[in-house]
From TrEMBL:
Domain USP: 1-215
Pfam families in the cross-refs: UCH
Recorded superkingdom: Eukaryota
One function term, GO molecular function aspect: cysteine-type deubiquitinase activity
Record Gene3D superfamilies: Cysteine proteinases (3.90.70.10)
Protein name according to UniProt: UBP16 hydrolase
Keyword Transferase tagged: no
């Protein structure tokens, strides 16, 4: 979306992100970096249609004269609509010379995550006055192996049906007031093998995909 909000409020979030101080190698740090405020200057300047029209006159003369005007700008990616299901995909590869190399280090992630510091202040699907957008973990996909070969396994929480989540998915409305993780039993699934595991085992996995459901 192209935002024409007041510059003073355009980059505001539901909760103060500057108080986060996220820990390195954590999902909070990943989200903080992904949604950080960037300044576009020099070769990254933004093509400004308004400035170009002021300089060149009517639009029909712009292409012929090719006098485009670029200006310094700020860019920030924030969540504009809080989804019922939050899916986080971790980039587990990096460039190593001419090759791609898998990133194996553990990234910490919580059972309950607050998305508010990464949401725009006018975030849709969030009641006015709310400063929290909570999600509960219910699924993890883990990859073992290398970039060339490997094996995918999953951790899934078996829990009771979330009626509030159903209302949010079907009607776009949320009356949920839960602030604690959804209760249930975790299972590790590898091909045809399924076994119960503890939540500590889940949180120590090398997550590749994380699945959270909306609480608040």
């Amino acid at each position: 979306e192209v935002s024409t909000d007041d510059p003073e409020t355009a980059f505001c979030t539901l909760a103060n992100r500057e108080e986060l101080n996220p820990e390195e190698d954590s999902i909070h740090h990943c989200l903080y970096q992904f949604t950080r405020n960037e300044t576009l200057t020099e070769t990254n300047k933004l093509l400004c249609d308004v400035c170009t029209q002021r300089h060149c006159g009517p639009k029909n003369n712009i292409k012929s004269e090719k006098k485009y005007v670029y200006t310094n700008a700020k860019k920030q990616m924030l969540v504009s609509r809080a989804p019922p299901i939050l899916t986080l995909h971790l980039k587990r590869f990096q460039q190593a010379g001419f090759n791609l190399q898998k990133v194996n280090r553990h990234i910490k992630f919580p059972e309950v995550i607050d998305l508010a510091p990464f949401c725009t202040a006018k975030c849709k699907n969030v009641a006015e006055g709310n400063t929290k957008v909570l999600y509960s973990l219910y699924g993890v996909v883990e990859h073992s192996g290398t970039m060339r070969s490997g094996h995918y396994t999953a951790y899934v929480k078996m829990r009771a049906m979330n009626n509030h989540l159903s209302d949010l998915v079907l009607r776009g409305q949320s009356q949920a007031l839960e602030t604690e993780p959804v209760k249930g039993q975790w299972f590790h699934i590898s091909d045809t093998h399924v076994q119960p595991v503890s939540v500590s085992k889940v949180l120590s996995s090398q997550a590749y995909l994380l699945f959270y459901e909306r609480l608040l």
